[in-house]
Design brief:
two-stranded parallel sheet, globular, mainly alpha, 4 helices, 118 residues
Length: 118
Amino acid sequence: MAADRMVIGLLAATALRATESYHPKGEHIIKDRFARDFLPPVWRLFFLPGIRHASIALTERRGPGALGMLLCRTRYIDDALCNALEDGLDQVVNLGVGFDTRAYRIPGIERTRVFELD
């Protein structure tokens, strides 16, 4: 039961990251072109236009600020990682990965060794 809740939480966070990619260019906080592919097909129904907007509204009503916190936290970590890569970081250890996609979407990360632990 606890494992099921954890998986649903990971899927929900991944769905929220994927939803952000539907904003027009220049209006999104993060761009995660892989998040949608990590989701089971039934979860992709949430990306249909009317359903997507209702899902976001429901998320905000149930947990005000949760979506913004998740996106800002993701952007902060992405920016910190990009800065570290520019400074010559040669190894990344990502703990609690879940459905994280940083190893695939962060520019320059391919020049490092990446370890992901869940």
